[in-house]
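Lab meeting prep.
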Amino acid sequence: MSASTNLKRLGILVGGGPAPGINSAISAVAIEANNHNIEVIGFLDGFKWLVRDGIEWSDPECPYCRRLTIDDVKQIHLRGGSILGTSRTNPTQQLEQVLRAFREMEIDALVTIGGDDTAYSAHQVYLAAKGALRVAHIPKTIDNDLPLPGSTPTFGFETARHVGTMLVSNLAEDARTTGRWYLVVSMGRAAGHLALGIGTASAATLTLIPEEFGFHPVPIKYICDTIIGSIIKRSQKRNYGVVVLAEGLIEAIGEQALVEAMKATGTPDRYGDIKRDEHGHLRLGEIEFGRMMKDLLSVQLKNEFPMLQTTFIDKDLGYELRCARPIPFDIEYTRNLGYGAVKFLRSERASQSDAMIAFVDGRMHLMAFEEFLNPQTKRALPRKVSPQGEAYECARRYMIRLEKRDFDNPETLRQLAASANMEPEAFRNRFGYLVGA
């Protein structure tokens, strides 16, 4: 990839939610650019201020951006969070305002760090600039759901899984000590990678992800019965457990069914509000999904299986992970991505197209936005967990949940039915539909 040396000033910003490794990516971009005598300007809070009118961007004292020298960034790679902040501001309706800011700052190249929404925004900025701005995007999300080549992870995922595993392992010890069941809701809007990774590594009793069901909408009763089946099976030896639920189950259930379930409890206000962000996504963090599941399960056990009555504790897991200090994997990975972004922007290819930066087998891989974004939805084609793959098959084997073989074995069926104080045939009629028995 031949290099071009005509870049003078590079802008960098972060969009979307935090992820471990952002500062390392910022550091790598700034160091590599400065090494080529390219001045680096960090824009604060994503596109938040870039879309505002009335800001004098050429003012040396402008409070919404900062120059990044090597001395400014040489120690930040070990830190979580983002020294530039972040936001979910959608700039696509104020593109001329954004470009005006870049012109005033004499920015001729831009690096964006973010997920699919930020990638789409970056691509729109590039198109609107009509060749006046080179653009590279560094994909990040702890959800690991962006369609990178092969099994290449998104940066932040490995750290989030690592920290999440430690936290769920602690909860499992508490469950064992107190005889409780924990319902842990893990971040992961479009795919269950993070939930499954945490659940498998921490040896959670049960992990449920939207991909396993294979149909939408997923009835809440189906989810509740799967958990209750796990409790019944587990009760033969243990009175405690941990269930990890991917937050993507909220969208798999569907907004209408979710509202109906909230109303059915008699206290719908107890579970938060259903809102959407600037990009049209349901704000899953506003919905107390774990609390709702706890209440539904508590009532169901009390009414149908009083002998199994237990204490449920709900716990949301996600915000604890996003600004964690990155593990070495994500530090090394983001250094590669930041270096690669500057290398691309200095190349002749960057004068012809924008690109997203990925690494495969130690080599930089450039992805066109067209192969990343769905042309209809303008969002990334999510990389989902494959329920038919051996990785999911292995994870499933370590869970304690009802399986078809439990119903095929008369003695196993009798024992399960006895644990639920039911006759075998009644137990089959009640739970067999979960596994096609």
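Slide two material, second protein:
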Amino acid sequence: MQLILHRYALPLKHTFTIAHDSRDSQETLIVELRDGEYRGYGEATANPYYGVTIEETAAALEAIREKIEGYDLGEPEPFWEAMRPYLKETPFAQCALDTAANDLYGKKAGQRLHQLWGLADDRLPITNYTIGIDTIDRMVAKMKEVPWPLYKIKLGTSEDIAIVTALRQYSNATFRVDANCAWTVAETIANAGVLKTLGVEFIEQPLPAENDEGMETVIRHSALPLIADESCIAEADVARCQGRFHGINIKLTKCGGLTPARRMIAEARRLGLKVMVGCMTESSVGISAIAQLLPLLDYVDMDGALLLKKDIATGVTIEFGRVRFPDENGTGVTLLEKPLASRVDD
């Protein structure tokens, strides 16, 4: 098995702004695992909020190149466990490696990955389309540019209710809102009541991740369901969300890949929590991995590749919120674009 790392800068259609970040392009690292004619792909983006850089992610994988390339890959789960001691401090790197291993496994087995897991794809949740923080006029323009049945509205300003009120005038789609840790307890409780009247489905991560006591208060008084994001990073966090949130949003990069994500889903179900999987601003490599989990989910946010000016890969496609799987095995990914840099030891 051969490890190849590809670096890209993904240009965005529009400047993307949330409560703690704003950007016009997204750096990403594509991990490729080659085994003869088969190629598996995984992705890890840079993320300033979590202090993740492409250089550090690549360095973590280069440090164990011999262990990766010397491993006799069969089912992906034992591979994840074998690499865990070396990558536990760099979950973005482990995610990209684990996703590539899963893709490779499915391609070698000659099946779509979710079918290998015994999952049907006849009843899947639709994905939202994200509207980042901007002027109201520009947010409305983005909605008109991409008519969609379900929008996620990024909030975290002093004018959040005014924003949602204005956007509601231009669309009868279902709204979700994501405050990205920017609200207080009192703001969340007050906002929830108003947002419910505006057709909002749920609120994602209203308080800072460390404010467990505040969330215990909010959940008792909120008019809307509450979904954890920054409060639910890894497997150990799922149980902590019980009694504080109604559901969890799993990010593959943050938890370390598809392997732990599946365990997190099972644990959330055991605890009676709703389950969502979310994305970063990433290419179809990462989005196609998320798609394999769709039969297990209540909600999904997998619009990352739709926000790009140009994608670097083919994989699943999304039409008016609904996912279509390609006629390919594994996660269905094929790289298209020449990377900024890669290492190939032919």
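Talking points for slide two:
The mean pLDDT is 95.
DSSP finds 13 helices and 16 strands in the chain.
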